[in-house]
């Protein structure tokens, strides 16, 4: 049968053509599927990076560009893999162009990423690493933003309630530059969340701080601010070594130098004593270290302290230890304690600091439980994402006239994902 008599558009008739043939030779694949590819694709299918796939054969450069344009028009983030000159237009147009290490120079120059080992598994690892980097970046920014909420709340409360200032400027500068700086740097070494690849894809225009996260910041920051002010007030009102004042005397301390009879026999210099400021500063530093272990923006966004223990990031533990060491240094070295207007605390006072500080861990764990239970919605989003990808791929089937094979590949058994590779 002559080639012009064959209906090459109908693959079901191919078996009728392959008869009475003469063996001429064998053609082998230059880059056969690797053993690790199957595991990587199964991992993608399990972890939302590969919901559905389509195999396009005899695709021309124009078709590849049209597929990328269609995906971008639907608000999707597309990635294109290729190694030849004919892949360059689509590689350049896609958000992520991935060229093979053995590909042409044109393909490499048009891509944002080059796979040196030509291995699909490297793409899977890159997706996971990219998510981890983005999460750590969010954690760093959130930490710097949210860590100041407690300070703002404490300053606002002392002014609104008329209480003596709990923290002076030099103490706030010390906390921001030293106590916060070291842990913030260590956050860059956080390992990926255990479920980082199980979360649905995020939108390109997704805000850094959602409404729920803002509520969590305010809840934790509000407690930190209130606890800081309460620690200073506790010394004035309840500490055996303090003046044992009542709330009226504390909230009207500016009247001490006047004729108010409520302050008779009271030394007004007591309101500038370093002990209450030391209590407030110690509570603030202790809560910072506590929330570093459990907070939504530190070790893990939603994973419990039990699932991701502190030692998964040894650098963060070292930074916390150094921060606490520096705090003890300014408390127990006379020259520094004079500069920062603090003083050594007794054992009873340290116990009070811990009692005031540690409930923030319970509060944060409760908020994370609510986030995992009610706000993540991973399973529901998984279904919606899957349906959305099916709609896109069905539309692509109708858009491309040169498609000969279209497989649902719900189990991602295809050894090679040509185009499009949809990143989650």
TrEMBL record:
Main location class: membrane
Topological type in the membrane: Multi-pass membrane protein
Example of a GO MF term: ATP binding
Keyword terms, alphabetized: ATP-binding, Magnesium, Membrane, Nucleotide-binding, Translocase, Transmembrane, Transmembrane helix
InterPro entries per record: ATPase_P-typ_cation-transptr_C, ATPase_P-typ_cyto_dom_N, ATPase_P-typ_TM_dom_sf, HAD-like_sf, HAD_sf, P_typ_ATPase
Lineage: Eukaryota, Metazoa, Ecdysozoa, Arthropoda, Crustacea
Matching Pfam families: Cation_ATPase_C, Hydrolase_3
Name of the protein described by the UniProt record: Sarco/endoplasmic reticulum Ca2+-ATPase
Coiled coil: none
Domain annotation Cation-transporting P-type ATPase C-terminal: ranges: 164-370
Species the sequence originates in: Penaeus vannamei
Compartment(s) where it occurs, according to its Swiss-Prot or TrEMBL record: Membrane
A GO cellular component entry from the record: membrane
Residues that span the membrane, as ranges: 140-161, 213-237, 311-333
């Amino acid at each position: 049968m002559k080639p012009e008599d064959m209906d090459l558009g109908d693959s079901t008739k191919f078996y009728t053509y392959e008869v009475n043939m003469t063996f001429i030779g064998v053609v082998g694949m230059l880059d056969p599927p690797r053993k690790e590819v199957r595991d990587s694709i199964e991992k993608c299918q399990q972890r939302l990076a590969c919901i559905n796939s389509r195999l396009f054969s005899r695709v021309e450069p124009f078709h590849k560009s049209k597929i990328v344009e269609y995906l971008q028009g639907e608000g999707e983030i597309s990635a294109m893999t290729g190694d030849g000159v004919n892949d360059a237009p689509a590689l350049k147009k896609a958000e992520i162009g991935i060229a093979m290490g053995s590909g042409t120079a044109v393909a490499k120059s048009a891509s944002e990423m080059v796979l040196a080992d030509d291995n699909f598994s490297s793409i899977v690892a890159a997706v996971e690493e990219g998510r981890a980097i983005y999460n750590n970046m969010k954690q760093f920014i959130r930490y710097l933003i949210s860590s100041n909420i407690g300070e703002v709340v404490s300053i606002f409360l002392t002014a609104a309630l008329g209480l003596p200032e709990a923290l002076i400027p030099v103490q706030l500068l010390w906390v921001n530059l030293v106590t916060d700086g070291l842990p913030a740097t260590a956050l860059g070494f956080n390992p990926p969340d255990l479920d980082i690849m199980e979360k649905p894809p995020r939108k390109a225009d997704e805000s850094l701080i959602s409404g729920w996260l803002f509520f969590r910041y305010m809840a934790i920051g509000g407690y930190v601010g209130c606890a800081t002010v309460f620690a200073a007030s506790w010394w004035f009102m309840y500490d055996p070594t303090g003046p044992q004042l009542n709330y009226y005397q504390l909230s009207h301390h500016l009247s001490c130098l006047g004729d108010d009879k409520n302050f008779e026999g009271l030394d007004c210099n007591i309101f500038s004593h370093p002990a209450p400021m030391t209590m407030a500063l110690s509570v603030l530093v202790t809560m910072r270290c506590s929330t570093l272990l459990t907070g939504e923006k530190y070790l893990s966004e939603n994973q419990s302290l039990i699932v991701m223990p502190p030692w998964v990031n040894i650098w963060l533990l070292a930074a916390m230890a150094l921060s606490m060491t520096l705090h003890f240094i300014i408390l127990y070295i006379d020259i520094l304690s004079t500069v920062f207007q603090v003083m050594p605390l007794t054992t009873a006072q340290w116990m009070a600091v811990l009692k005031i500080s540690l409930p923030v861990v319970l509060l944060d764990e409760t908020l994370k439980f609510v986030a995992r239970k009610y706000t993540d919605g991973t399973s529901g989003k998984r279904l919606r994402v899957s349906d959305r990808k099916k709609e896109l791929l069905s539309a692509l089937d109708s858009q491309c006239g040169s498609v000969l094979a279209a497989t649902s590949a719900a189990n991602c058994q295809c050894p090679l994902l040509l185009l499009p590779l949809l990143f989650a």
